[in-house]
Design brief:
Blueprint lengths: L1 H12 L8 H4 E2 L2 H11 L2 E6 L5 H10 L3 H10 E6 L5 E4 L2 E4 H7 L7 E5 L5 E6 L4 H12 L9 H5 L10 E5 L1 H10 L3 E4 L12 E4 L4 H10 L4 E5 L3
Parallel strand pairs: 1-3, 2-3, 8-11, 9-10, 10-11
Antiparallel strand pairs: 2-6, 4-5, 6-7
Helix pairs in contact: 3-9, 5-7
């Protein structure tokens, strides 16, 4: 009976109780990350990594698999991991191999995380491994834009921010919506209001004549990532 009650409680809490698969959070293509960042209007993070790097793997298994970190990422960032390979990336009008990106960004060790605006402008970088609680502070600092307000990170990190994201409605073209649905594993297409236990941290792409009405209702009820397809 106790086991049944626990399972019932978990089902009532909703899907976001459990961490997402890492493959749904951490993408593996530079161009995809930057394009999603632009369309979803979120900052981008590129993790310069190595498959044999102990702290790269620890970052993935401990930090990026943490549910609070994943919620923060889903609401504010698009994140991807690249290795030193001959895969190609388009950056600021030029084409580079991933190896050339490592060299161009002056990566000395892995993991090194570079942050970019949704327009592709570099913000800052973070060398080395951080645990979940410390990484959350960095994500909040970047997402809130406090780096641009000349607020010192050490000062910011001493505070107790509960920020996880700002609910918003973003309008997409059909092409943008299709790209997001194809390439972002956390995106979900809907044409009616989500069910009662729907995960508020997923990225909902809404189409149909009632899309705006549905989006506004979702905004009131605490969904964070709402995208309305402009059918024009």
């Amino acid at each position: 009976m106790k086991k049944i009650l626990v399972l019932l409680l978990l089902s009532l809490i909703g899907l976001s109780v459990f961490a997402y698969s890492l493959n749904n959070v951490l993408l593996n293509n530079f161009n995809t990350v930057m394009t999603l960042s632009k369309y979803e209007q979120k900052d981008a993070i590129i993790v310069f990594s190595d498959p044999n790097c102990f702290y790269c793997n620890k970052l993935k298994s401990d930090t990026l698999s943490n549910l609070d970190v994943q919620h923060m990422l889903s609401n504010n960032f698009v994140i991807g991991e690249i290795y030193e390979t001959n895969d190609t990336a388009n950056f600021q009008g030029n084409t580079y191999t991933y190896t050339q990106l490592f060299q161009g960004f002056g990566v000395k060790g892995t993991p090194t995380l570079f942050f970019f605006t949704s327009a592709g402008t570099p913000i800052t970088y973070l060398p080395g491994y951080l645990g979940a609680s410390d990484f959350l502070k960095v994500l909040q600092y970047i997402a809130l834009g406090d780096y641009a307000k000349n607020i010192d990170f050490n000062t910011f990190s001493k505070g107790n921010s509960n920020f996880v994201g700002t609910s918003s409605i973003i309008e997409l073209t059909n092409d943008q919506a299709n790209y997001i649905l194809k390439n972002d594993p956390l995106s979900k297409k809907i044409d009616s209001y989500p069910p009662k236990n729907a995960d508020p941290f997923l990225k909902y792409v809404i189409s149909g004549q009632d899309a705006v009405s549905i989006a506004n209702q979702m905004l009131k009820n605490g969904f964070y990532n709402i995208y309305v397809v402009d059918g024009k």
